[in-house]
Amino acid sequence: MRIIVDVMGGDNAPGELVKGAVQAAELYSANYILVGDRTAIEAVAAEQGYDLSRFEIVHTESVICMEDDPISVVRAKRDSSMGVGLQMLADDRGDAFVSTGNTGALFTGATLIVRKIKGIQRAAIASVLPFSTPVLLLDSGANLTVTPDQLVQFSMMGSIYMQNLFNLSSPRVGLLNNGIEACKGTALQLGAYEKLLADESVNFVGNIEASRIPHNACDVLVTDGFTGNIVLKYTEGMGKMMIGTLKGMFKANTLTKMSALLVKGQLGEIKHTFDASEYGGAPFLGISRPVIKAHGNSNAKAFRNAIRQAIDYVNTGVTYDIARAIGEIKQAENAEREEKSNG
Amino acid sequence: MRIIVDVMGGDNAPGELVKGAVQAAELYSANYILVGDRTAIEAVAAEQGYDLSRFEIVHTESVICMEDDPISVVRAKRDSSMGVGLQMLADDRGDAFVSTGNTGALFTGATLIVRKIKGIQRAAIASVLPFSTPVLLLDSGANLTVTPDQLVQFSMMGSIYMQNLFNLSSPRVGLLNNGIEACKGTALQLGAYEKLLADESVNFVGNIEASRIPHNACDVLVTDGFTGNIVLKYTEGMGKMMIGTLKGMFKANTLTKMSALLVKGQLGEIKHTFDASEYGGAPFLGISRPVIKAHGNSNAKAFRNAIRQAIDYVNTGVTYDIARAIGEIKQAENAEREEKSNG
Description:
2 copies of one chain form a homodimer. By secondary structure, the first copy, chain A, is of the alpha/beta class. Chain A is built from 11 helices and 12 strands. In chain A, the strands form 2 sheets. Chain A has a 7-stranded mixed beta sheet, with helices on both faces. In chain A, strands 6-7-10-8-9 form a 5-stranded mixed beta sheet, with helices on both faces. In chain A, α1 packs across α10 and α5 crosses α6. The longest helix of chain A is centred in the C-terminal third of the chain and has 27 residues. The relative contact order of chain A is 0.15. Chains A and B meet through α7, α8 and α9 of A and α7, α8 and α9 of B.
């Protein structure tokens, strides 16, 4: 197992990312390849007293910024830590790639350099919403507009991911919609509903209203990337608001401050629920090799979890299962077509 | 001022709705017309010891159910409490109509019976999101797909509503989008961004990411009805989840139960924040006379607040201001067109 780690992206590079990688290496056996500025990486190691001899370091100088055009990863900044890391993954010089960098650039690079699994129309960004029963939301921002067939593929990929990474035998797939009735939604939802109902390979539980998302309604929630991005970011915003409200509540006066001490453990659990770092990063499903986007503000712990997730992603064979499923689906479609033309 | 009140729709009809109307009548001076089953209304009054002599009661037998096709309000169930109430509003036998019934039917009826303000392409359902700085979200479900021009009209209508009902001199209008940059979104957002930027009649503050919705980013948030419905319902679902989590936290053991007593006042405030009943109902902006949709599960207090909102809606002249604004816009457009054809 070889994990390629981009230590240059996001808000806390390279300090927290090098720390996260070193922590991961202590916990999870694998070969770690750090891609980034060698001097900066070694400075972090010197400061923290890390021995980097077990790491391979691939030196790069350029970095993709949040402001960069996504396409720059395959053009002007192909030599960036992200571009080099993705190329290494494509060339089989590693088994997975983890980065906190610019989401758009990472997705563009994954699609153009590493490439999609054959038969997958669109890769998707899948994000785990941090409720007591986690929900895998896809697409959460890569494809602003999609087709019903693409939503069906997202359902299949999301199911395989949840089966493998969350040990669910038959993940419940829901279609995000403005009502539960079959007649709800735009042409996209109407078309997808019909196709999902007919698809025996996924456990489709119907339309899901947004009010039910936090309440154990489904394990995989499919939607277009525009709506998915709204849901993902609103979850984050509401979580922050909730924690802020709680803090305000307990800071009100001496009695409430005492009260905070009594529920300290429970408060920690709530914070944990909304702490994206617990769940690591967002896998790009449909890419031919595992690419994980860690949150841009990842600290060492969040980044370490994203690396663990990449290892699980490789170990459980998600990519293989998706390729097999899409192959089987294509075969079934071809057989059906042949039958029709013969009959 | 004559308020037409549908006491037959929603989950708690007619009991809580009659109670809410009686409470409103005690607080806010107006003529109240109750539309619904006379026997059922009188039974509530007898049980509660209400004197109904100050109310006009218009007897109806049929009721629009949640399962009814929206169009039934103008067809098979035109004689329902909702259909009759809307017709009375259209015939100037009242100044505003409040109902907890089927949203789709109420919107369809408002559009087809009461009709839109001349020049308004699409009426919209506007909902107040209950944050410390309230946000008026529109459209929150009536028009699943819209055009950039319709979003511009929504901005104008939402601004006028917030000016009048929330006393804001220059409401900040935001466009819900998947990023803050001008280049973000689908063709709809790209088109709307450009038009909103050029429109001097609204205080456009740019694209708003969903993470910022609870954090005082804007006063009016415009989006298509599909996305708006997702945001509205997710707010509700997250609020419930949050309150459930807090309850669970305080019920954990004896110490946490003691703690709950210490923060009782603060807990009440949080519940209040997420209590939709505080804000009353959702106005249908763009309809030629005020129609307010109260929440389907309204209790007496929520319904009373929706009635107060209807009174404010009439008193502040929102409908008049919208009609005037759209008239002025049309005039300006005509003048520009004439100038071009002359020049």
